[in-house]
Amino acid sequence: xxxxxxxxxxxxxxxxxxxxxxxxxxxxxxxxxxxxxxxxxxxxxxxxxxxxxxxxxxxxxxxxxxxxxxxxxxxxxxxxxxxxxxxxxxxxxxxxxxxxxxxxxxxxxxxxxxxxxxxxxxxxxxxxxxxxxxxxxxxxxxxxxxxxxxxxxxxxxxxxxxxxxxxxxxxxxxxxxxxxxxxxxxxxxxxxxxxxxxxxxxxxxxxxxxxxxxxxxxxxxxxxxxxxxxxxxxxxxxxxxxxxxxxxxxxxxxxxxxxxxxxxxxxxxxxxxxxxxxxxxxxxxxxxxxxxxxxxxxxxxxxxxxxxxxxxxxxxxxxxxxxxxxxxxxxx
Length: 332
What we know:
With 332 residues, this protein is of the alpha+beta class. The chain is built from 4 helices and 28 strands.
């Protein structure tokens, strides 16, 4: 009953919003259709861990990993490709580990893997001795953002991004929870969507806020965040209202730019440029100083095209799945 009611509410909100929502329309003079330039962008992304795997030819430009049938990409960590099925994962398609529930995110360091499960339990598993050395159940969450962050191994601890908006700090040696750091306090979707380190500063975000902790100082700001990225000493976010914001590690705003009615899907930063994928079929490139911007028209594949690509190609990048498909459609 509750599930049906929730679906009804979501559908009602969606159709009510879509009935009068305006769409992003860039100036025609700023739109580029230069496929060579898009290929250059994709080639640079290749260096940022982009993998195009042609299953029919069983070859790849950047690695020899093969995705087994029925398994989807989960993460690339500690030079290990991790793929998952409903209740199992494979490490480089060689070692299979089965569990009693679905895995949301995972990281690996040497013989240990840190796991966040779909029921919001967290665990550390020893893949050499094939045993669970730590497990704890967190508050059960019924809905979460699929852009779930991965755990981080930090010295002798693991930082787990939980689905209820906390960072659980676990002592590996003593196999115990040290503390929970609360990140999300508001919003329907509270899970951690981004968790990385800039030098000694921890940066994390949810749908509703961003937090940084470094030099014994905690900084937090509220935004409606679509996607987060870091580069050098700066943090970049794309917001639900079409803003692109550059901040210091202390979350002081350095620069920002708004694209009216833009529906951003993801953000990435490399080679002194900011790249955003926009839902209407645009790849927006902004210089790091925010003085120049250009827009590229790319093809967004429909559901059938996406299904065909997923069957033929194994694709991964920090643009996430849809961003990759956009770049694939534009670059070939």
